[in-house]
What we know:
The structure holds two protein chains of two kinds. By secondary structure, chain A is α/β, with parallel strands linked by helices. Chain A contains nine helices and twelve strands. In chain A, the strands form three sheets. Chain A has an eight-stranded parallel beta barrel with strand order 1-2-3-4-7-8-9-12, surrounded by four helices. Chain A has a two-stranded antiparallel ribbon with strand order 5-6. In chain B, a hairpin with a 5-residue loop joins strand 3 and strand 4 (184-189). At the A-B interface, helix 2, strand 6 and helix 4 of A face helix 1, helix 2 and helix 6 of B.
Amino acid sequence: MSFPVQGAGLGLRRGLMDELKAALPAQVDFMEIAPENWMRMGGRLAKSLREFTERYDFLCHGLSLSLGSPDPLDEDFIRDVGAFLRTHKIKAYSEHLSYCGAGGHMYDLMPIPFTTESVRYVSERIQRVQEILGQRLIIENVSAYAEPGKRMEEIEFVTDILKSADCDLLLDVNNVFVNCRNHGGDPYKYITAMPTERIRYCHIAGHFEEADDLLVDTHGMTVKDDVWRLLEFTYQQHGVIPTLLERDFNFPPLAELLQEVDRIHAIQDQVARAEQVG
Amino acid sequence: MNASQTLQQQLADSIRGAQPSMPEGVSERALGVYRDLFFNNVLGFIDGTFPVCEQVVSAQQGRDAWLELVRHFLRDFRCSSPLFVDIPLHFLEYLQQQGEAALPAHLQELAHYEWLELAVDIDPAQAPALADPNGDLAACVPVLAPAAQGFLYQYPVHTISTDNPTPAPQATALIVFRDRQDQPRFLHTNPMTLALLAQLQQSPQSGLVCVKAVLTAAGQKHTDAALHGGLQILQQWHREGLIIGVRATERL
């Protein structure tokens, strides 16, 4: 299996840039940005980004493709994303298996009904995106607080789309954990059911526990121990996979954030060693 | 639309607050989580771009009035841009569409002025390559800093604050541009010099030709004093960074 990047990564955010620039951390093997926050943009921010993309391997993780939306695909936007990917030599492009508007953009993620008609509709749109870009799209399982119109399990929905669209997977381990808690389900069974050969990288992040049965995927706090364990299990099940830490706000000092990047490395090393021994 | 898409439209409308009923499979608690997430996300971009406008509205009518305005924007406006940085632009478009029903004229203009700072900061324009940053502004074609634009407001927007929330109308000319350090800069000027800026942008010729064209358009004679005054403005703009030099190869 080939990966677009290697090792452990960190999501690049505006709020982290100054600290990162002051001392570029060596344990960060790759970074990731949302193209929607950087494209069609000039000035100081564009220059800053350039410094990072020239130094690190980069992935793009989209927010506005709105793969499941009833609105038509914005093909001009997709072509602009393609140009942005080429300009910054981005290694791969992922998007949420979700939709972010219906009758206009709403700038956050909504759950697609788990139905066969959704599988067909979304798969066709993914194929169209892949056709325009001339490259494979990586889709990410998203966290959700409701399962509107559900007619099949999420596991089935995700794997059916991967197959029928013939695309790849960004496995968000925290989202698996959040959804299994919110809707009932076994996160270990979920992870096991994902097709190894399609996983291109993983995400890990912190969530907020609003209630026992309501976790909110905030990306605003440290990764929970349960989720670290699930990441380790993911590697044991599928082999070591490049993994990126997402932190969107409420930033701790950079050194603390890098400890979590180190922990990804540690789990990767540990599972790799165990595999060699076994 | 198939049944799944109809449900998706209902969920989107419910999150916007445009539909009171709960879509199938969505609890009131879940809808509340989504409404908060979506609203706070959009609010963050709007608060970050329009801080003075927010302070003035909140001071005069309470923070809830401002939140209500953002809520109505989320509910009623169809945002076409996939870029998050365009959320404030869409909000501005919404305000303009609503007119005085949303905000009084002076706060409408303030919102535009505040948005300009963001727009200039990220404008894709780049400074053109210059042969001579210190060339003769009268004889050569002056080159403007990236994202340079002039605006004529009906109110002194740059003076509005919670201490001065409702200034009297007064024609106010402002020029905005991005300086050599990539920072947005504002120059307070007058309508006549706005015409000179427009001349430089629309038909770039030597500084002297541009000054003469503006004087002619204003029905003024090309006296030595008038020409000297015009060229002095160009020199001042050069010192302030609005003019970054001249195209040295051409002499018109």
